[in-house]
Amino acid sequence: MTDGKEPSLFPVPPMAEQERMIEAILFACDRPLSATEIGARLPQGCDVAEALAHLRSRYAGRGVALVRVGDGYALRTAPDLGWLMQTERVEQRKLSRAGIETLAIIAYHQPVTRAEIEEIRGVAVSRGTIDLLLELGWVRLGRRRMTPGRPVTFVVTDEFLDHFGLESARDLPGLQELRAAGLLDNRPMPGAEVTEDEDALDAPTRGQSELFED
């Protein structure tokens, strides 16, 4: 029985040369290759399995390892040195108006449920808005309300307080401070019915409900 291939007119390369060939193939390839794919690139008579075994042994303990990925083989950074490849990048993210309003409602009304946020804003809160605040680490899940459905609540985190230089949520600015800083226009905020008298009497002692009125 034969494998259907014509006998080679050239001698089979020595094992060390077969290893070099496979090493070159895997180094240049952008995906794992199966033994069959590797063999198709080598001269006839090469023992791919034995060459791979020798090559894997040769790479043992080095910065690069020969690994098996499914049915394929690839050269990869040694697992214990993966941290050398990590990079840190600061990504600037700008909150949308919906995100700012949602964050403010949570900060001033915590613990607050999604339904309560939507009632105050007057519009539905998209899942992406909450997910972004959770991803930023400024909001976390609080305790569930002991009401029908036991809805989860949202509260601000220590990271939120630290980012804005606050000791606690009680240090959140009032309406007058926000407007003086240009962070709030003269329109009533979502869910708030603020009169001129109430605005004049606004003071930090009003606590977490000073920005939004129920």
What would the average pLDDT be, to the nearest integer?
78
Shape designation: elongated
Task: Give the DSSP E fraction (strand runs of 2 or more residues).
Answer: 5-15%
- The percentage helix is 25-40%
What is the N-to-C order of secondary-structure elements (H for helix, E for strand)? HEHHEEHEHHEEHHH
Main beta sheet: strand number and arrangement? 3 strands, antiparallel
Structural class: alpha+beta
Termini gap? 87 Å
The number of distinct helices, counting runs of at least 4 residues, comes to 9
Q: What is the gyration radius calculated from CA atoms?
A: 32 Å
Q: What is the oligomer described by this structure?
A: single chain
Main β-sheet, spatial strand arrangement? 1-3-2
Spans with pLDDT under 50 lasting ≥5 residues? 183-214
Number of strands: 6
Q: Can you tag this structure with a few keywords?
A:
6 strands; 3-stranded antiparallel sheet; alpha+beta; 214 residues
Describe the structure.
- By secondary structure, the chain is α+β, with helices and mostly antiparallel strands.
- The chain is built from nine helices and six strands, in the order αβααββαβααββααα.
- It has helices spanning 15-28, 35-41, 48-59, 97-109, 114-121, 127-136, 158-163, 175-180, 196-201; strands spanning 33-34, 64-69, 72-77, 112-113, 139-144, 152-156.
- The protein has a three-stranded antiparallel sheet with strand order 1-3-2. The protein has a three-stranded antiparallel sheet with strand order 4-6-5.
- Strand 5 and strand 6 form a beta hairpin.
- Helix 1 (15-28) packs across helix 3 and helix 4 packs across helix 6.
- The longest helix is centred in the first third of the chain and has 14 residues, at 15-28.
- The termini are far apart.
- Residues 183-214 have low confidence and may be disordered.
